[in-house]
Design brief:
It comes from Salmonella enterica subsp. salamae. By secondary structure, this protein is of the alpha+beta class. The protein is built from six helices and six strands. Helix 1 runs antiparallel to helix 2.
Length: 138
Amino acid sequence: ADEDAVQQALSMMRLDALTHRTWQRLSGGERQRCQIARALTQQPDILLLDEPINHLDIQFQLELMRLISALPVTVIMALHDLNLAARYCQHLVVLHEGHVVASGKPVAVLTPELIQSTWQVDATICRTERGMMNIQYA
């Protein structure tokens, strides 16, 4: 059963072909996926991630966010990239100075007013041709 859980986690994080590599030979994105696979072997109901895309190139940020959003568990993560949060998260909780200032679906939470009051940044929110939110900062 343990070997099955390991194999399933490796498959979910698309690491099957990398099992022969040592930790030192993995890229930053591969290491992040490996750490998440390690947690998944415990078959959790909830996965807590703190800045899982930090220090990753854009292609690996997008790949990791796609993989995380497809996981069969509840994922609670800290993110600072509002565009990625809007694109991949079903529910957002915005914290400011240790207090919840907004909670809900990205389209309801991420408003120019909230962005201004929370981060003191002017923002415009547009929709892409595919309907995704795109936050542009002034």
